[in-house]
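Example for tutorial group B:
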């Protein structure tokens, strides 16, 4: 690994954050005997500092993954290619921007002609001995159907189109025959402080243990120092952004990966005058309230009270 890749630990031995540079990503053959053409790179997991999640970069090249079930939940986002997902026996042809959740205990398999590349999120983190994955048989070979987000049978899947993050497009009413999912909270974008957030995987798709969403920064956007009662990961897709985590600062670029532990105070700053986009996940799933703890708010309270911050 290069000098800044790896997991950083606090003085008490607890993990704080993890950085993996694009040039340090290394794939290895995975699931021998149950897959062909499958290579993976674990970006964060139990042996890499995480308590609650595992994030993996998955490459499937002219191959397959046998049908199986997990006792954990997985989410995915397709980066390249058109892999086929067999979910509960039904084949769906995916493409870049396709995403979804495989609920706990639901049988699924993969097949790909050519190379498919995707991010895969697991929560809780898988057991190191693989005892929470159960193989059922060979990969189905039934012809798949293209992913159709208007088909209610695809209730665990979604497709992020470019217009889904365009606030100018979302300001206008969509005609009833528009070839997209009907306008609702499923198409809503949260916008604040120059930041647009589009939820991809959450309870709407029947994800119970994690969330996955797309983050888009406008030039000059920022998220001030804060922490969470859960872990987060960030996989860079476009542009550059500075991240500050527990006092250390790095510039993240496409293909870089970052992870923050529960309680890690972190912030993001767009410094280049350009657009930035990354894929973000969290586990456990955020609570309805108190998901964010902004340092400046509690500094303000201390100032109002005229009190000093104590130590445990």
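The residue assignment follows.
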């Amino acid at each position: 690994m290069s000098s800044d890749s790896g997991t950083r630990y606090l003085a008490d031995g607890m993990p704080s954050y993890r950085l993996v540079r694009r040039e340090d990503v290394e794939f290895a053959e995975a699931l021998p005997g149950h897959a062909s053409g499958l290579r993976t790179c674990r970006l964060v997991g139990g042996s890499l500092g995480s308590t609650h999640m595992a994030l993996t970069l998955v490459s499937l090249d002219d191959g397959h993954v046998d049908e199986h079930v997990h006792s954990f939940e997985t989410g995915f986002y397709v980066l390249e290619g058109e892999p086929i997902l067999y979910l509960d026996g039904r084949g769906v042809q995916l493409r870049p921007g396709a995403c979804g959740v495989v609920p706990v205990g639901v049988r699924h398999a993969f097949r790909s002609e050519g190379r498919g590349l995707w991010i895969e999120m697991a929560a809780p983190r898988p057991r190191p001995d693989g005892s929470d994955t159960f193989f059922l048989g060979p990969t189905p070979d039934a012809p798949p159907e293209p992913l159709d987000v208007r088909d209610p049978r695809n209730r665990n899947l979604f497709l992020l189109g470019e217009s889904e993050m365009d606030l100018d497009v979302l300001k206008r009413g969509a005609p009833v025959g528009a070839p997209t999912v009907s306008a609702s909270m499923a198409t809503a974008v949260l916008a604040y402080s120059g930041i647009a957030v589009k939820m991809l995987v959450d309870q709407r798709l029947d994800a119970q243990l994690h969330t996955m969403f797309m983050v888009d920064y406008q030039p000059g956007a920022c998220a001030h120092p804060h922490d969470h009662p859960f872990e987060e990961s960030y996989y860079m897709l476009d542009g550059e952004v500075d991240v500050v985590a527990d006092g250390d600062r790095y510039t993240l670029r496409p293909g870089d990966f970052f992870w923050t532990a529960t309680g890690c105070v972190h912030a993001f700053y767009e410094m280049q005058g350009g657009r930035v986009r990354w894929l973000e996940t969290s586990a456990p799933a955020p609570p309805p309230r108190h998901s964010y703890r902004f340092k400046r708010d509690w500094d303000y309270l201390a100032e109002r009270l005229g009190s000093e911050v104590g130590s445990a």
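The mean pLDDT is 92. Compare this with the pattern of hydrophobic and polar residues in the output above.
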